[in-house]
Specification:
With 186 residues, the protein is of the alpha/beta class. It has a single domain, classed as Aldolase class I (TIM Barrel, Alpha-Beta Barrel). The chain is built from five helices and seven strands; from the N terminus they run E-E-E-H-E-H-E-H-H-E-E-H. The chain has a seven-stranded mixed β-sheet with strand order 3-1-2-4-5-6-7. A hairpin with a 7-residue loop joins strand 1 and strand 2. The protein binds iron/sulfur cluster.
Length: 186
Amino acid sequence: MDFPIDTQIIDLNQPGGTKLHLAGVIRESIVDGPGWRMVVFVQGCPHHCKGCQNPATWSFTEGGYDTTVENIVKAAKENPLLKGITLSGGEPFTQAKALTVLARELKKEGLDVMSFSGWTYEELINGANSENCWLDLLRELSLLVDGKFIEEQRSLECLFRGSKNQRIIDVQKSLAAGKTVLSELN
Ligand code: SF4
């Protein structure tokens, strides 16, 4: 399948562009992506997967706390061991605009950025528009772990994933090829 590619770029000076609503942050993890990573859990998820381990992150109106891109970048810079940041949730793509700003700032610091999403890569590409900024965030990612958690396909053997339907997508190769390219980590 060929994907439409637009050229939407976020205006970094846009008011409110750096506010984030998070469920929490893990400062160091070795199970949420390659190498030592900080994990940023956003608050709010529309997918409501049966068997989800983080149902407290579902609500968009209750729970979580406000912070800023600048606070997360500062926290990341304090740890020289970090290889990168993993965006998790909740559903990161519901805050794609602010997370794109975050990803750009982290990449300036030499950090790799990957994300989980309950949407598939194809759903994100085909649903991307100038308001949701999904394509902008994808452009900043190395890897995307995609798809809902399906309890019937739950597996402890899948690297970084909870169920067998989920895939590890090489996002940069996928964008360049105009089709979904799986990472060698699958
Ligand atoms: S996408 Fe993730 S956070 Fe959202 S309901 Fe599914 S497993 Fe839970």
